[in-house]
Each structure stands twice: as structure tokens, then as C-alpha cells.
Design a protein that fits this description.
The complex is a heterodimer of chains A (116) and B (109). Helices cover 0% and strands 52% of the residues of chain A. In chain A, the strands form two sheets. In chain A, strands 2, 4, 5, 6, 9, 10 and 11 form a seven-stranded mixed sheet that branches. Chain A has a four-stranded antiparallel sheet with strand order 1-3-8-7, with no helix packed on it. Chain B is built from no helices and eleven strands. The chains are: A mainly beta (116), B mainly beta (109). At the A-B interface, strand 5 and strand 10 of A face strand 5 of B.
């Protein structure tokens, strides 16, 4: 099956710094990538949808200036958490879809962000 | 609004069978997915149903009734490693995944 690689898997950063998370589709071209946030014991919360070469579409309540998404190529999307605060600590997961494919979403391994 | 309901937690015994139900109300329907998620890990795909009926895949089966807005995931011959959260998700008319809150399944020896 298709593979999506997310890096880093864990990161600890100081409050006020920025953290970049990468999501790569390894064996297919991902025209659309999704970024999710998951709180403990909660389901996935869609943050934004990114399409290659265009601006990301953010869900209501998600600050686009805080969570910067770049989908510069068909195999790479990045999420940058700017000026991180402890409340940004969470599990962030990306998923990718192929054009015309309406079946399973392929997930990255997730990134555990801890802001201290 | 869009809504997906599934039980918060279920407990079952090793070797037994368990059925996890999911009901949904969404704007449009383009398929229903079941995912397994172990703590601290990303979800992994289990099944996809777009037509009514039962899809069997090894120890796991998934059923869909579109008229009732209902699906279930059936797990047979339960193993301890099946302890995980099981997420139901529906692809709506915009091809966006709407997620349920997940069912935490606890397997006891």
C-alpha cells in the first residue's frame, strides 16, 4: 500500500519557538494532504486541507497564522507551529490522498509535540 | 449538522466476538471507513464500505446499511493485540472524512 512518512515522530520545544513537521508521500503523488490534531482520548480534528501549489483551506477556529501549511510539491507538505505555547502540545497527524481516489486515506506516523 | 456516533468504550474477552456499532448523519455519503488506532500511533486502515452488505476480511468484518445510516465492525477470535481504539469515518459529499470519536476496545484474558 501507499506510504506516507511524517517527521519528526516526537519533538520537545521551548515556548515561543517554532516547530516544522514534514509529511511526505513516498510512492505516489499526493495532490491533497490533510493535517489533523488529536487530543488525548479524542478523535481526529481536521485542521486544514492543503492542495499542491495553492493556499491551504483551514477549518473554522484554526489560526492560519499560527499553523502555517506549505504544500510545495506533490510529495511534500509541511506544518509549522509558530510561536508555540504549551496549549499547542498535541499529537499531529497528516494524511494524503491521490487525485480521484476516494478510498482510504494514508496516514503518516504522527508527531507528538510537547511545548515546555 | 454532521454527526457520527459510536460507543465510547467496550470490553470483551480474549477469543470472543465483539461488534462495534456506528451510526451516522452526514451531508452526502461516499463511503464509510473503519480504522484501528493504538495509543500514541496513527490510525491504520481496516475496511471500506460503500455498498450495503457485509465485507469480510479475515477476523474482521464490516457491515453497512445506507438506508439506516448504520455500520458495524465485527471482530472475531479476539486477541490481546486487538486492544485499541476503533474509529468510524464517513466520506461526505465533498469527499471530506467525518470522524467519529472512536471506541476504545479493552480485551481481557
Amino acid at each position: 500500500g501507499a506510504v506516507v512518512s511524517q517527521h519528526p515522530s516526537r519533538v520537545i520545544c521551548k515556548s515561543g519557538t517554532s516547530v516544522k513537521i514534514e509529511c511526505r508521500s513516498l510512492d505516489f503523488q499526493a495532490t491533497t494532504m490533510f493535517w489533523y490534531r488529536q487530543f488525548p482520548k479524542k478523535s481526529l480534528m481536521l485542521m486544514a486541507t492543503s492542495n499542491e501549489g495553492s493556499k491551504a483551506t483551514y477549518e473554522q477556529g484554526v489560526e492560519k497564522d499560527k499553523f502555517l501549511i506549505n504544500h510545495a510539491s506533490l510529495t511534500l507538505s509541511t506544518l509549522t507551529v509558530t510561536s508555540a505555547h504549551p496549549e499547542d502540545s498535541s499529537f499531529y497527524i497528516c494524511s494524503a490522498g491521490r487525485e480521484g481516489m476516494n478510498t482510504e486515506a494514508f496516514f503518516g506516523q504522527g508527531t507528538r509535540l510537547t511545548v515546555v | 449538522g454532521q454527526n457520527i456516533d459510536q460507543p465510547t468504550e467496550m470490553t470483551a474477552t480474549e477469543g470472543a466476538i465483539v461488534q462495534i456499532n456506528c451510526t451516522y448523519q452526514t451531508s452526502g455519503f461516499n463511503g464509510l471507513f473503519w480504522y484501528q488506532q493504538h495509543a500514541g500511533e496513527a490510525p491504520t486502515f481496516l475496511s471500506y464500505n460503500v455498498l450495503d452488505g457485509l465485507e469480510e476480511k479475515g477476523r474482521f468484518s464490516s457491515f453497512l446499511s445506507r438506508s439506516k445510516g448504520y455500520s458495524y465492525l465485527l471482530l472475531k477470535e479476539l486477541q490481546m493485540k486487538d486492544s485499541a481504539s476503533y474509529l468510524c469515518a464517513v466520506l461526505d459529499s465533498n469527499y471530506q472524512l467525518i470522524w467519529g470519536a472512536g471506541t476504545k476496545l479493552i480485551i481481557k484474558p
